[in-house]
Amino acid sequence: MTLSIITITYNNCEGMRKTLGSLQEQTHQDFEWIVIDGGSSDDTLSLLKDTKAFITSEPDEGIYDAMNKGIERMTGSHMLFLNAGDQLAHPDCLEIINEYIARGAVFIYGDALEQDLDGTIHEKIAKPYTSISKGLFTHHQAMIYAQSELRYDLQYKIASDFEFTYRFLRDIVALDLPIYYIPQPLCIFEGGGVSQTNAKLGRQEQYRARQTHNMQGAKIIYVRQSAAWMFRRFFPNAFWKLKGLISKSHAPC
Which residue ranges in the chain fall short of pLDDT 50? Predict the structure, then answer.
């Protein structure tokens, strides 16, 4: 077993049902599944009682506190965060990821699919990991990290995944450790989460993280992100069409 899948959840039994089904259909079943539940009062725990999941159910201090609990519990060499409602994109995702882990990868990332509240699915082709200072280059659920001493910074309520990934990549790039891109969707991200319902706070936190880590162009990136979010809100069809064209032209090699 080399991969630990960490799922955080709170009163999202229907979302957990989708995540569970996605894991059960994988052709590669040699993985550890850790579920960090915030003390759900719905049927989540009943749903999981006969599964392979290791479950902790107790109140926490939020999303990233739960993620840190998952990291503390993991025994695999690599970790993937797949939260309740999220799914793997196809049945052989874990098999492919495991092949890259066997090559010695320290960080792996791929494309993603994003599901709107109306069920529409959009493809999001990853940007090169070298663009991390501008924001996450793919969905967090399409990133696989080697086990690390790093933890999510709880001062960020929405953008800690961005800040964590920046620190992780900064460290492994400095050591010239192997990074691999898988040119296909790895996850189906369930839209409507806190990062989308409170996108303004997410942009503000990213701005603060850029200043903390002395990244260049913090103000310009903030303005561009704000403009892009407004464009997406009012012209969603045009946004996704334009994003698809831009993504394909900037996809990693």
Answer: none
Domain boundaries, the chain: 3-249
Amino acid at site 142: A
Chain-centre distance for alpha carbon 236:
22
Residues 6 or more apart in contact with residue 160 via CB below 8 angstroms: 63, 64, 152, 153, 154, 205
Tokens 């989308």 belong to residue: 196
Question: What is the model's pLDDT at position 223?
Answer: 84
Give the pLDDT of residue 251.
Answer: 64
CA–CA separation, 141 and 134 (whole Å): 18
Domain 3-249 matching CATH 3.90.550.10: the answer reads yes
Reported in sequence order, the residue ranges of the chain that DSSP labels E, i.e. its strands, are 3-9, 31-37, 54-57, 78-81, 87-88, 107-115, 121-124, 143-146, 179-190
Give, for 94, the enclosing helix (H) or strand (E).
Answer: helix 93-102
pLDDT at position 217 is 86
User: Cα angle vertex 92, ends 88, 96, to 5°?
Assistant: 100
| Max CA separation in the chain (angstroms) | 50
